[in-house]
Design the sequence.
C-alpha cells in the first residue's frame, strides 16, 4: 500500500536492503527476515512522500533527532504503518547515513541506471547491481558488520551477480 500510494502521488520510490533483496536473491519472503522496510525517495520528493504516508494513515515513528532535520540534515525518518504489530518504514532521502558522505556521493547516486520492477502491481526501483552491492557493503560496515545476516546477504548477492557485475565500476 505504501508503494502504491507513492506511485499514485507521483513519487518515485526505490526499494533498499531486505525488501530489495526479496526482489533479487531470495525466492521466498520467509527466507529473509526483516524488522523494517527501507524505501528511498529523492530529497526533493521527501516532503511529498511523508505527506503521502500520513494521508494513508501512517504515523511518524521515533524521532532520533529534531523532526525538522529530515531531509536536509538527516538521511531518514521512521514511519509506522498501523496494524498489529505496526510495520516500520524507514523513509530515506539519501542512500547513506554519515553526512560526510553526502559531500562525495551525490544524493541521486543510487538512482543512476536504476531498474524499474513490478512490485505487487506497482512500480518501484532497485539500484543497479553494482550500486546495490556498494550500498549493502556500506550499510554493513557502518554498523560494524554486527549482523551475520547482512554479510550473508552480500555473499548471496555476489554469488548471484558475480558474472555480470562491472567490477571496475565497483572499485
Sequence:
Amino acid at each position: 500500500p505504501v508503494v502504491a500510494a507513492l506511485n499514485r502521488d507521483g513519487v518515485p520510490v526505490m526499494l533498499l536492503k531486505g525488501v530489495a533483496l526479496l526482489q533479487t536473491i531470495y525466492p521466498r519472503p520467509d527466507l529473509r527476515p526483516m524488522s523494517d522496510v527501507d524505501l528511498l525517495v529523492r530529497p526533493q520528493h521527501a516532503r511529498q512522500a511523508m505527506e503521502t504516508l500520513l494521508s494513508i494513515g501512517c504515523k511518524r515513528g521515533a524521532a532520533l533527532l529534531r523532526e525538522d532535520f529530515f531531509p536536509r540534515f538527516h538521511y531518514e525518518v521512521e514511519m509506522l504503518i498501523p496494524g498489529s504489530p505496526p510495520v516500520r518504514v524507514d523513509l530515506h532521502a539519501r542512500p547513506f547515513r554519515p553526512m560526510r558522505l553526502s559531500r562525495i556521493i551525490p544524493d541521486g547516486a543510487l538512482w543512476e541506471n536504476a531498474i524499474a520492477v513490478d512490485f505487487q502491481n506497482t512500480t518501484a526501483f532497485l539500484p543497479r547491481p553494482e550500486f546495490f552491492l556498494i550500498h549493502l557493503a556500506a550499510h554493513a560496515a557502518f554498523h560494524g558488520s554486527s549482523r551475520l545476516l547482512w554479510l550473508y546477504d552480500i555473499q548471496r548477492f555476489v554469488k548471484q551477480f558475480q558474472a555480470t557485475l562491472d567490477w571496475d565500476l565497483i572499485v
